[in-house]
Amino acid sequence: MKTYIGIDVAKLHLDIHQDGKASRIPNNEKSITGFLKSLSEHSMIVCESSGGFEALLISLAHIHLRSIARINARQVRDFAKAKGRLAKSDSIDAQILAEFGQTFRPSPLSIPDQLQQEIAALVKLRAHFLTQITQNNNLTETISDQFILAIIRKTVANLKKQADNLQKLIAAKIQASPSLQSKVSRLQEVQGIGEITAFSLIGLMPELGSLSDAQAASLAGVAPFNHDSGQFRGQRHTRGGRFQIRSVLYMSALVASRHNPILKALYQRLVNAGKPKKLALTALMRKLIILANRLLKNPNFSLAS
Fold first, then answer.
1. Which of 91, 126, 142, 252 could form a disulfide with 166 if both were Cys (CB 3.0 to 4.6 A apart)?
2. How is the chain split into domains, by residue range?
3. HSE (CB half, 13 Å, CA atoms) of 16?
4. What pTM does this model have?
């Protein structure tokens, strides 16, 4: 029988709820390794997304072949509220995570491919540099001091150079893998999905090609959720998902709305029907991620022309 262990992750320590008992260990390799070695093969660790502080725990769990599931923090909080548990502390959160696992029996995270992990890290760093470029460019609109403007321009030029170097490094890593190169080529069959978007999808959404249409849209954060009650029919809204994926899909949707004949026609139909342009672009984002998933899932799937 599987035993569920809840772990609340903080920057400096891990709060553990195991077999009804609470404990705390430092969030470092030595302590986590010792803890993992003490677990039986029937144990399942349940943690939540903690801004990346859970990365070491997940990595070591995979190295030591211990099952681990990562849960969306909002789901865990909603579960606690449903149980009437309004108090919140690290030890309480660990207990709630253990109970969540016992109740819902979440699927463990698959062991990630090392190359895809490297690509994901590079994609995220490049996106971070691009955000900094935008922030610095925005500063120039409110600054007139030429000395400060020169510093900003020099910073932007350096960030652009670093982003370009990262792009070349990502391309080289993918080129070295026939499997990933094939996936990138397949994704670029869609007008609107360029090289950068393809790299991002490969790195940030390794599950792509193994999901249903609904799962792919939900994971990308572009699935509409109902807001209905009785006779009331509210607007559908997207929520959750991976924000980096949404960012690259948005840019691809803009391109597709102008250059992809089929998606351009869909975009125009939605806008002509009175739909806001942002909603129409979200519909295109959803179409793009579903097409990408189908292309990688089925080698015989062909795009409409």
1. 126
2. 3-104, 114-176, 196-297
3. 19
4. 0.74
